[in-house]
Amino acid sequence: QGIEQAETPLTLYLRLGNLLLRQGRPAEAQEVYSELTRSNPRSEDAFVGLALAHIAQLPDLQALRTEWATQALRSALRLNPNSTAALAAQGDLMTALQRPAEAATAYSTALASRTAGSGDDTALRLRLANALAAAGRWDPALQEFQRVAIANPSDLGLQMALGNAYRASGRSQQALAQYRRINQLDPAYPFAYTKQGELLDELGQPDQALAAYQAAAAAAADNADAVFTLAAAYRKRGLTAEAIAAYEAGLALDPTREG
Fold first, then answer.
1. Of 12, 88, 140, 244, which one has the fewest beta carbons inside 10 Å?
2. Is 71 exposed, middle or buried, given 0-12, 13-18 or 19+ CB atoms closer than 10 A?
3. Is the pLDDT confidence value at 149 over 50?
4. Res 115: pLDDT
């Protein structure tokens, strides 16, 4: 709906637009932010939000939405040339357009624009790391993944991101060490065991790989993915009875599973 009362707090509508984006409703967010840019033309956040709403709708009307998002970000940066949010959104636009080198440049600029004490930069650094990786710049990408992992030692998802980056960049031993480190942090985390199994299979160590798959299923007996992965590992090794038992256990957890 339009903004009918001039006295309505800008922050409430910005919050509404943000919530709509987070709920996967970018067209509605676009309406909110479009109205905000008209009623509050000095709000850089409104223009950034409008850009993000267009980015979230790509590749629909790609040429037009790219132009609209670019125009909105230019408006934001005219209002504040050091707008971290606008610079980061430029990175998001380049990422959506599959231009990772330009995305990395934008994210780097956004990080440089941040002032001391401006809060946690984990999310922005992770976007930079992923852009660098997509551009094939593995050395700086790994530095960023490492920095994020060190800053968030108890965040298993970020620790896994580092392990996955090692693996994707061909650093198998470092990846294996990282996955094992994760299971030292949390012995009940099945996904790191599964990644160990996949990597050990790739390295030609099937017995150790099988032990890792078994550890994943043991750590999370109610996790259907871990159990089905173990079943597939048994079948691959010709262990038919074990594979049948594991498939039956997996189907008991998830009867709708296909494939």
1. 12
2. middle
3. yes
4. 84
Q: Are 196 and 212 in contact (CB under 8 A)?
A: yes
Burial bucket for residue 36 (CB in 10 Å: 0-12, 13-18, 19+): buried
pTM of the predicted protein model: 0.88
pLDDT at 1 over 50: no
Q: Residue 259 has what pLDDT?
A: 64
Name the region of 208 (left: φ>0; alpha: ψ -120 to 50; beta: rest).
alpha
Torsion of CA 142, 143, 145, 149, to 10 degrees: 130
Cα 146 from Cα 129, distance rounded (Å): 9
Give first-to-last CA distance, the chain, whole Å. 45
Distance CA 106, CA 141 (A): 14
Q: Is the pLDDT of residue 7 over 90?
A: no
Q: Residue 166 CB: number of other CB atoms within 10 A?
A: 23
Report how far residue 193's alpha carbon sits from residue 215's, in angstroms, rounded to the nearest whole number: 6
CB 129 within 8 A of CB 145: yes
